[in-house]
Write a sequence for this structure.
C-alpha cells in the first residue's frame, strides 16, 4: 500500500517532535530529516501491523481539516504540517526476513532435469514470482 499522511512536526529545544494524528502515532527525531524518517518508519510499521491483523487502515485526513493548535506538542515550539509518503509493501520487504516452506508439485521428469542440471528450484521459483509480481529483491 502506498499513501501519503499529514504529519505535525514541532521544533522543540532538543529535537523535532512528531505526531501522525490519523494513526495516533507520537515519535521524535534529532532533526527534521531524522523526524521525517522516524515518522515514515512508524507509519509503515503501523500499517503493516494493521494489515497483518486484518484491521482497517485509516485514510489520510484532508490537510484542510487539521488544526495545528490541537496538535499534541503544539505548546512545545513551532509546529508545521507536512506530508510523509509511505510504501508498506517496500517496508515489508525490508523487515520481513523469515523464510517459509512451501511444497511445490513438479512433474517427475522436470524435477529430474533440474536436479541433473544443478538448478536451485527454490531460487528459480523466487525469481519467477518476483518477475510475475513485478517486485524487486530487497537490498
Amino acid at each position: 500500500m502506498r499513501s501519503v499522511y499529514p504529519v505535525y512536526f514541532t521544533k522543540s529545544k532538543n529535537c523535532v517532535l512528531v505526531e501522525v494524528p490519523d494513526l495516533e502515532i507520537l515519535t521524535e527525531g534529532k532533526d527534521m530529516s531524522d523526524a521525517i524518517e522516524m515518522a515514515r518508519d512508524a507509519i509503515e510499521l503501523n500499517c503493516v501491523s494493521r494489515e497483518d491483523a486484518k484491521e482497517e487502515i485509516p485514510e489520510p485526513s484532508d490537510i484542510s481539516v487539521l488544526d495545528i493548535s490541537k496538535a499534541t506538542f503544539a505548546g512545545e515550539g513551532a509546529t508545521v504540517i507536512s506530508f510523509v509518503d509511505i510504501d508498506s509493501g517496500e517496508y515489508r520487504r525490508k523487515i520481513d526476513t523469515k523464510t517459509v516452506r512451501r511444497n511445490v508439485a513438479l512433474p517427475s521428469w522436470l524435477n529430474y532435469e533440474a536436479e541433473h542440471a544443478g538448478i536451485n528450484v527454490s531460487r528459480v521459483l523466487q525469481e519467477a514470482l518476483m518477475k510475475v509480481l513485478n517486485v524487486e529483491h530487497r537490498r
User: Anything to note?
Assistant: The first strand starts at residue 2 and ends at 11. The beta strands are 2-11, 16-20, 25-29, 78-87.
